[in-house]
Amino acid sequence: MTEERPADPADPADRADGTGSPSEVPRAAPGTSGHYGEDLFEPAHPREAERIDDAAVVYDPVTTGRLRALGAGPGQRCLEIGAGTGTVARWLLTEGGAAEVVAVDRDTSALAGLAASLDPGPAPPSGAAARLRVALADVTDPASLDSALGSDRFDLVHARFVLMHLPERRRVLAGLAARLAPGGLLLLGDAVDPAAGAASGGSTPSDPNPAPDSDPAAPSAYRRTMDAMWRALRATIGTDIGPVTRYPRFLHEEGLVGVGAELYCPPLVPGGPLAEFWRATWQRMRPALEERGGVDPTTVDEALAVLAAPATPSSPGPAELGPGMLLAWGRRP
Ligand SMILES: C[S@@+](CC[C@H](N)C(=O)[O-])C[C@H]1O[C@@H](n2cnc3c(N)ncnc32)[C@H](O)[C@@H]1O
Q: What Rg value do the Cα atoms of the chain yield, rounded?
């Protein structure tokens, strides 16, 4: 089953013509044949783990709180998809009481030290490391996943901030649902941005570069940069947060029961971990942000400054609703 998304002629991502500076923009643009971890956000970047952890520290309590509320963890076989630096896998093993966690990623370098950090010597090992298996696999490739997991089924399958980056997300979601043992829980977390394109009533992305002072209600530099980021991500690697609010429906379509969803939008605190996450994200993808997102460098500089730690306690900081995370879940009958 594939996800339908009609082209939107008002969206530059649908009009990308590939005429940017070839030395500056990721090679996969235009179109959506680029890949997370290859064309953007390479795991070898010295600060990539730190960038992922900045988001994890904000969202982990929400994710783990929901896992607890749904009874996930104790004695269970768990599959963590796109495990990143392994913060959720760690929680499942140390606090969640999981019997086993298989942490899958298309690049497992950020998970290399996880097992050792779970059972550091010389204290008697807790056994958490022995319950962890790290598996290299591309979740978009069924053969790759089959080779890593065989025919294993799990009591919990969790993927956070992964499917949104995969154009094949609807098919991947079906594959994850099929990995559930009877009674097993699928929990998905992905980004939503309630204020995206707010200046135009939420129907179209904001104009990234409105004429100065032409409209007192013009979107802020932060808003224009964030909207540009979504456009650039989509044009470069196929990221799309549009379908995220439809995840509950997709879970129903996969025959799951007890489907539920919740939304969490954390505050944007200048200099805080989430603000640092967005700053690092914009800095890392800046060429694509400007070329594919269509935002000018001055606006990006202004937006970066707004999210930076305030120079003085009276610095204004952002007056914005930031993106949040939608959690959606369902259970195999
Ligand atoms: C934004 S990070 C999120 C990491 C982690 N889930 C978290 O929330 O902290 C996305 C993760 O998904 C992984 N990933 C991206 N595409 C993937 C694919 N096709 N197969 C497996 N993992 C993938 C990336 O390598 C990265 O670790």
A: 20
